[in-house]
Amino acid sequence: MSLLLAGALTWVMVRDLEYRSVQDQLDRQVTSAALQVRLNECLAPAVAGTSLCRPDTPNDFTERLNSHAPQLGSTRLILLDNERYVVYDSGGSGAVGTQIRLTQSARFTGVLEAFTPLGDQNYLGAAVRLPGKRADPLGAAYVMLAEPESFVATAAAGSLASRLLVAGGAALIVAMLLALLVSRSVTRPLTVLASAAEDIAAGNYARRVSIKGQDEIGLLGSAFNHMGEAVERARKVQRDFLANVSHELKTPLTSLIGFSQALVDGSLLSDAERTRAATIVHEESERVLRMAQELLDLARVEAGSISLHITAVDLGGQLEQELEMIRPRADSRRLSIKLNVPDDIPPVAADPERLHQVLDNLLDNAVKYAPEESTVTATARLSGGSVETIVSNPTGAHRPDPDRMFDRFYRADPSRSAAAGGVGLGLSISRELTAAMQGRLWADFDDSGNLRLHLMLPPSREPAASATTATQEASPGSRPAA
Fold it and tell me: Domain check: are 375 and 298 in the same one?
């Protein structure tokens, strides 16, 4: 299509140039043609006492013009009278009596130009006025040379056709080579991407492509590699998740099977042994149920199917209630609990039940893993337009990794008892719940080496509800262990 358009445009330009060239040639020739006509007006001796020749007959004058017209080649000789009507035409008498419109030439002084139909063709013409008094038997006032438009077009086509064919052939070859190179540069990376996609679909999640660049194909290659990394991480998390769930379920199920079998086969003889076995079966059953509930909560939060009822919550009152609930556990480990909440802390926009679950996880985590006879501190403050809650506690011999604390089943001490330390889902659930409430949850260490858990929530523009009511609405058994 581009070649056709370029050829058509070139043809128009060359044709216009050929028209201009022919017109200029006619403008130059018409003056000498006028002299020839002037000389052929009469051949009889001059009238005595004058400079005029005796008038010739129109037929003799026409015959002399016809004999000289072939010397002009394809050019047509035409004579016009003062009104610019045709009185003679070397191409025949069909145009005699036709009026021709003449315009002044922009390039030659005294030369008039015309573009007029004569018969069934259009002609380019150039005319000059015959000077002085004459004995023209036809009464001609203008001499005009005309060239058919078809002759000009044929000449232009003849000179252009071969060049266009050569240029078109060369352009076609170059275009085919460029198309081949471009198609290969596009199809090769796409073929590599298709092969890599099939490998990932077959389970080779480590497959990557080496397609780079700032163009669309390069960006597609980078996006594919990012996708592959994300899929590989997701599969690893899934494998680790299944392995951790299997490991966490193995211990309580083994205890359930062993002690229930002992109760069934009567190998426990004393009432104390049977009571102890029944107690262990009950505790391990609760542990399995709690793990199942935590996994269900985590799946609902990640799927976005958990329902939240965001309202204004009095953070200070909520923290006081939470501290009262964990105080017996803190006293059993001889821990000191401190609360620092300014009076001007605004209420936070949160779901009361889910906020209770998050705060209970943070405080329970601090009480459970702080060294005995140490201090657990809960602080609330304004931070950049949000309300920040910080739960701080010293760490024991096993210092946790703040970047991994929110991973599923993470434990700072892998060898510790799962029954005493939970299954490691509480903080992961808490982070997901916090994100669902448009907040943030992260961990770090202060300059003293104390572990700090930061809970950032947006402030509420509504009055706060009673913290006691919010706490009562939360089920006491819904607290997941950290």
Answer: no
Among candidates 340, 346, 347, which has minimal Cα distance to 379? 340
Distance, in Å, from the CA atom of 88 to the CA atom of 95, rounded to the nearest integer, reads 8
Task: For the chain, give the longest Cα–Cα distance.
Answer: 173
Can you tell me which residue has the tokens 């009026």?
A: 99
Q: What is the token pair recorded at 415?
A: 């060898």
pLDDT of residue 107: 83
Same domain, 323 and 299: no
Averaged pLDDT score across all residues of the chain: 79
Per-residue pLDDT tens for 253-296? 888 888 888 888 877 778 888 888 888 888 888 878 877 777 77
Long-range contacts (CB closer than 8 Å, 24 or more residues apart) made by 399-402: 400/369, 400/443, 400/451, 402/442, 402/443, 402/444, 402/445, 402/451
Q: How far apart are CA 338 and CA 370, in angstroms?
A: 14
| Residue 184 lies inside a defined structural domain of this protein | no
Q: What global pTM score does this model have? A: 0.48
Separation of alpha carbons 29 and 37, rounded Å: 13
d(CA 80, CA 67): 19
Q: What local confidence, expressed as pLDDT, does residue 477 receive?
A: 40
Contacts of 392 (CB under 8 A, 6+ apart): 366, 376, 377, 378, 379, 446, 450, 451, 452, 453
Q: Are 317 and 353 in contact (CB under 8 A)?
A: no
- Are residues 326 and 463 located together in one domain of the fold? yes
Distance, CA of 209 to CA of 231 (rounded, Å): 15
What is the 8-class DSSP label of residue 47?
A: P
**Can you give the CATH number for the domain in which 473 is found?**
3.30.565.10
Least confident window among 12-21, 106-115, 185-194, 357-366: 12-21
CATH number where 43 lies: 3.30.450
Segment (H or E) for 156: helix 149-201
Residues of the domain holding 96: 2-158
Number of domains in the chain: 3
In a domain? residue 193? no
CA separation for the pair 100, 143 (Å, rounded): 12
